[in-house]
Amino acid sequence: MRHVLWMSVFAALTAIVFGVVAKGDTKQRVRYAVKVFAEFLVVAFILGWILYFLPFR
Amino acid sequence: MVAKEINRESRGTASGQAWVIGIAAWAVPGLGHLLVRRWLRALLLGGAIWVMFLTGLALGGHLFILRGDEWGFSSLVQLLPMIANVGLGALYVGCWLMNTGFAENAQRLTYEYGNTFLLVAGLLNYLAMLDAFDIAAGRKE
Lengths: 57, 141
Fold this sequence. Notes:
The complex is a heterodimer.
Chain A: H1 2-21, H2 26-53
Chain B: H1 2-12, H2 16-27, H3 31-35, H4 39-58, H5 73-86, H6 90-98, H7 111-136
Helix pairs in contact in B: 2-7, 4-7, 5-7
């Protein structure tokens, strides 16, 4: 659970910076930041499940 | 042709003040946007980068530095993350002067998270620095 928490904090902070420096009006930039945040989480969950099934041990 | 002219003009308008603001933005996260009076941008960018830096240290991450005893590939392994960390500007220099944050805490569960926070905080500050420079140079609203 702690990993998900820190991953979400990381995604949120990065998305804020990306949203602020992006071009467009405020609405577009907020939408972009939310999109970046969601993409971080979705990709992390997908990669997490893929790695879960890979026999690394 | 017109686009080339505009590009040449905009390149020429980067005044000394813009460079000073760019350096200030690198040195202290958020300061560049404060100097160009973009309060909300300064709060969001500076706040996010500061929080990332402090969280990275709290999670047990460490800053990278070239100690001079690395050779070949191992120096490259240290150099690239160090360039990312140097993006933190005065925060990195302050840590270096106080010899804080360079010790590895690999036994900590969140060690890798801390490293990632510190690396990305520096990279994001480079982005914020370019944004402040562009605003000061009149290339961005």
